[in-house]
């Protein structure tokens, strides 16, 4: 681990993070509201129909991000894409106030389009701030990840609450206003962004290999995470029923968020002063993930009060794993991608994850019927990936550092 000297985060990085925080608050707040609106609001949809539409939204967002990234990189520029995307998403939120299926579809289409324009282009613009201080990339993107997690948490908790208790239209209007607020920090910035990475001597083939490995690793991580989450959700419901834990009732699902914020903050500070290979951090992430699932495996199918502490410890290690992997992926993509096409590469990173999700969906019934099997699979898969990353890191140490 190398000490970082004479490099600091710029004020632009904090402004971009604030912008992303407000946008994610509005987007996740809207997502929390829209399903309830479809089922309990004016439309009175059947549950299956509502969740089917919700599923289409998530799938459409993948392709919307790719289109938004291509427009940002090749046609209108990243900054214009962010501004247009923000306004489009806000109009989408306001359109949901129209009490009809037409209003619903227009609102969802504009929301997905706007978020697709915003997300890859804000990540790209943020990453370009660090092109000439590459050793701060991990810290920067961990700060960015902290901001979007905070935004998502507040959006679901506050905007979802407002919409549910004060009326869906009020919720949609406030969501749209919050979306527009997210544009303010970005609009006032006028800093020129660096155009190239200093001292990057890796060959094109090596860059492609690093990016490809990153695509595969993040896809595997999120899908293993979702499979293990079947067991985690089941345990959360069981612990909710244990009377001794009334103080945590209905809060078990928020534990990860409570962990993520302080852990992200600590990691941001740590990576601001000390540098190590991004792939080394990925390796540590899968090691912590393996530890988490091993702990989870030893909780019996019918847990008792004594197992709650073990469960909390398992969630802690899983959150550490997430913080060591999720933000670092964007750091790697920024480091090894031509800045002119960074938003496009960032958007394409979502595609392998979705394709792998569709592949794993073939075994969903098996994992739902036997959640312990999903945990076993996760332990083996994370262990193998961790070993693979260990080999890659220590066989290529000199080539991975600047």
Which blocks of ≥5 consecutive residues have pLDDT under 50?
398-402
In one word, what is the shape? globular
The CATH class of the largest domain, by name, is Mainly Alpha
**Helix percentage:** over 70%
Mean pLDDT: 87
**How many distinct folded domains?**
2
Summarize this structure as a short list of keywords or feature phrases.
single chain, 402 residues, mainly alpha, Growth Hormone, Chain: A, 2 domains, two-stranded antiparallel ribbon, globular, disordered C terminus
Give the helix/strand layout.
Layout: E1 2-3, H1 11-40, H2 47-74, H3 78-95, H4 101-128, H5 137-166, H6 168-181, H7 184-187, H8 204-240, H9 255-273, E2 274-275, H10 278-297, H11 307-336, H12 342-348, H13 350-360, H14 364-369, H15 371-395, H16 397-400
Antiparallel strand pairs: 1-2
Q: What does this molecule look like?
A:
The protein is an all-alpha fold and 402 residues long. The protein folds into two domains: 10-187, Growth Hormone, Chain: A (Up-down Bundle), CATH 1.20.1250.20; 204-400, Growth Hormone, Chain: A. Helices cover 77% and strands 1% of the residues. The protein is built from 16 helices and two strands. It has a two-stranded antiparallel sheet. The longest helix is centred in the middle third of the chain and has 37 residues, at 204-240. The two termini are 13 Å apart.
Brief overview:
The chain has helices spanning 11-40, 47-74, 78-95, 101-128, 137-166, 168-181, 184-187, 204-240, 255-273, 278-297, 307-336, 342-348, 350-360, 364-369, 371-395, 397-400; strands at residues 2-3, 274-275.
């Amino acid at each position: 681990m190398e000490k970082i000297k004479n490099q600091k985060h710029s004020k632009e990085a904090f402004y971009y993070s604030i912008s992303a925080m407000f946008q994610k608050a509005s987007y996740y707040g809207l997502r929390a509201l829209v399903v309830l609106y479809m089922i309990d609001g004016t439309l009175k949809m059947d549950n299956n129909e509502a969740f089917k539409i919700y599923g289409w939204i998530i799938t459409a967002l993948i392709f919307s991000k790719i289109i938004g990234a291509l427009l940002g990189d090749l046609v209108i520029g990243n900054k214009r894409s962010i501004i247009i995307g923000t306004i489009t998403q806000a109009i989408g939120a306001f359109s949901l106030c129209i009490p009809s299926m037409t209003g619903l579809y227009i609102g969802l289409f504009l929301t997905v389009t706007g978020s697709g324009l915003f997300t890859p282009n804000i990540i790209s613009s943020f990453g370009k701030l660090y092109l000439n201080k590459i050793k701060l990339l991990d810290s920067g993107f961990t700060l960015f990840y902290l901001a979007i997690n905070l935004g998502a948490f507040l959006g679901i908790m506050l905007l979802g609450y407002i919409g549910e208790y004060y009326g869906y239209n009020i919720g949609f209007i406030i969501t749209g206003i919050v979306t527009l607020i997210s544009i303010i920090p970005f609009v006032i910035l006028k800093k020129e962004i660096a155009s190239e990475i200093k001292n990057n001597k890796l060959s094109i083939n090596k860059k492609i290999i690093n990016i490809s490995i990153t695509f595969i690793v993040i896809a595997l991580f999120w899908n293993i995470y979702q499979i293990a989450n079947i067991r985690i959700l089941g345990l959360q419901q069981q612990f909710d029923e244990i009377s001794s834990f009334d103080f945590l009732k209905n809060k078990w699902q928020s534990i990860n968020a409570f962990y993520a914020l302080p852990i992200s903050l600590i990691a941001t500070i740590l990576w601001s002063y000390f540098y190590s290979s991004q792939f080394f951090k990925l390796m540590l992430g899968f090691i912590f993930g393996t530890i988490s699932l091993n702990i989870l495996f030893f909780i019996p199918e019918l847990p008792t009060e004594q197992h709650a502490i073990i469960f909390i410890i398992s969630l802690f290690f899983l959150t550490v794993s997430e913080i060591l992997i999720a933000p670092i992926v964007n750091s790697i993509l920024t480091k090894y991608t031509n800045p002119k096409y960074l938003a496009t590469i960032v958007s394409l990173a979502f595609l392998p994850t979705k394709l792998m999700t569709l592949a794993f969906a073939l075994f969903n019934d098996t994992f739902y019927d036997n959640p312990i099997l999903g945990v076993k699979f996760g332990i083996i898969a994370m262990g193998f990936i961790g070993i693979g990353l260990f080999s890659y890191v220590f066989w290529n140490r000199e080539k991975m550092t600047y």
